[in-house]
Design goal:
This protein has about 400 residues and is an alpha/beta fold. The chain has helices at about 5-10, 35, 50-60, 80-90, 95-115, 120-135, 145-155, 160-165, 180-185, 190-195, 220-235, 255-265, 280-290, 340, 370-380, 380-390, 390-405, and strands at about 15-20, 25-30, 45-50, 75-80, 175-180, 215, 240-245, 275, 280, 300, 310-315, 320-325, 330, 350-355, 360-365. The chain has two domains: about 5-205, no CATH class; about 215-405, no CATH class. Mean pLDDT is about 85; it is low at about 1-10 and about 205-210.
Length: about 400
Amino acid sequence: MQGRNHYIIYIMGSYANLSVKNEGILYWKNGLNSFIRKLFTKDDFLDLTGNDAIRASQELGLNYSEDYFEVAHLVVGVSNVKTIRQRLLVCGFNLEYAEKRFAGVIETIKTFFDETDDTMKEFYCRNLKRIKHTFDLSRIPKKIEYDDWDDFYNYADDWTLFLSYIYNRNLQDEDKVILDLTDLIDGGWLDGDSDFSQKDFVLLKDVIISDLPIILTEGVTDRNILSKAFKIFYPRLTHYIKFLNQDFKPEGGATNILKMARSFASAGISNRILVVLDNDSAAISAMKVFGEHYPSNIRVTTYPYNANLEKYPTIGPQGETQMNINGLAGSIEMYAGKEALTDIGGTIEKIQWTGYIENIKQYQGSLINKTVVQKRLYDLTDDSIRNSSDLQIVCDHILNELGKIPSVNTII
C-alpha cells in the first residue's frame, strides 16, 4: 500500500487512503470518513482488474504487487486539486473558511502548552512554528514539509488536515488527488453495490457537508442555459450544482424571485440559497426595493460584468447607438456569444429600451429577438459554446458566489 511512515504501521484490517501529489495524506481503517464522500462522485472512479489494474496502479504511483490483482479489483477515485477546491467552494468551504479552521486548531494547540514543563514547551513551540510555516494558508511556502505534516497530523482532526493541505498554495491545479478504496472494498468494509457502484458519493448524507445549495434564477430559460453551460465548462461539478425546479412554472422576473427568497427566509429554510438575477435595470431596481438584509444562508447576486457588452447596438428614442448595457440589459442571452447573437445576414441583434424605472433613474433594455437568440443558443454545439460564448464567466461568477455562502454547519 502507498503512503509515508504513519501508513506503514498497519496491524489488522483494511484501509482507505487519500493522497495528493503522490503523497499519502490521510487514511481510514475499516471505513471511510464521511466528508470525503462529498468530494468524489461515481464518475471519478476506476474499477479495474488484471492487466488494466496493474497498468493504472503503476501510472498512479500506487504500490501494489502485480499478483494482487489476480483476484482483487483496483478501485480508486481520481481527481485533481482544482476540481476538489471547486467542489469545496460550492459546498461553502472556501479558502477563508480553511484559514479560520487552521487558525482555530493552532490556538487549541497553544492551550496544551500551558500544562507542560519548560523543556517540553520549548519542543512543542518549535513544532508549532514549523507547522505554521508549512500550512499557514495566507503565505506561499517554497515546498510542503512532510515531516511537519506528520506533526500536524498528531494535533488536528481529518477535516482540518485535509483543508490545510488541499488549500496549500504550493499545490498546482493539475496535481492529482486520489482516493484509494481497493483494500477497503477487498476487505468487505464497503458494500460494492450499495456504497460504490449504484450511488454517486455526492448524494450521500453526512455530518460535515450538508445538502447542496439551491440556485434560483429569473426563469426556466436561465436555468436551462446555465445547466447546459455547467455541463460544458465544469462537467465534474454537475452533481454539485442544483437549480430550483421551475417546471411548476412559478412567476419569473427579479421581483418575484426575490419574493420567493424572502418567503424561504421567513419560513426558516436552512438550505444555502443563491439568487442569480439578470445584469439589468429591473434586477437592480428589485434589489433596491427588497434591500440587502437576508439571513447568512441566502445570497443575492446578478450576472457578472461583461466587457463584450460595453459597446453594444441599441435602439431608443434617439435612434440607434452603441452603449454599455451592463446593468441595463444584461439578460442571460447577452452572454451567449457572437454566433448566437448574430442573425443570418451577419447583423448583431439589437437591444431596445422599453421603459424608465424611477427608483434607479435608468432605462430597462431587452433583446428584440430574444426567442430567436435562445433558439440559436440551444442549437449551438458544445464546442461553439465553449469557444465563442461568455457563459463561462457566468459559471465562474456563480462558483465564487456559492463560496461566499457559509455551510449551514458554520453559521453561528
